[in-house]
User: What shape does this take?
Amino acid sequence: MEQNEQKDKSVFVTVGTTQFNPLTSSITTPEFLSFLSSHNYTSLTIQYGKGIPPSFPSCTNLQRTDDGDMTCFLENQTIKCQAYRFKPSLISDISTASLILSHAGAGSIMEGLSFPSVKKVVVVINSQLMNNHQLELAHAMKSRGYLFVLEHPEEVRERNVMEEVERFVPRKFEGGDGGEDFVKIVDCQMGFV
Assistant: This one.
């Protein structure tokens, strides 16, 4: 069964150790949640770092559990939502995700691409960072077919953009062990070569 045909699909969003409030607020909008619902996504996990904890203003009935999980009721579907600042490891969240939305930090990109099974990784540029170094690395990885790039977090709210993400088929990243291709890309972007 192909990834797009799975009955239950999950989204994992990570901002790393910093904050990226424009991304976390964009993924809790009615537009994005409606997109998830219409494509059979049943869970959304958000690692929001030092940012503001996400709220879900579009949920008609947001129920919270004692362990911090939330269930968001949308029209005829529910989406289980989890949000946390940090964890010692993101491996379990990444391994179960059908779709990964990540800031463009090198470490987060490597984690998303390093799994034996090909993961659909969408990198969202945080243009608030000085020198916007993330843009160069993200585009270098995109040009090789490893990931999809969004230049602005607001793009996740645009159905046509997310439909394009759904159709994107990533190329297997062979450098998941810190391999040569990734090292060359980072060295080039950092000006070491």
Q: What stands out?
A: The domain at 7-190 is CATH 3.40.50.2000 (Rossmann fold).
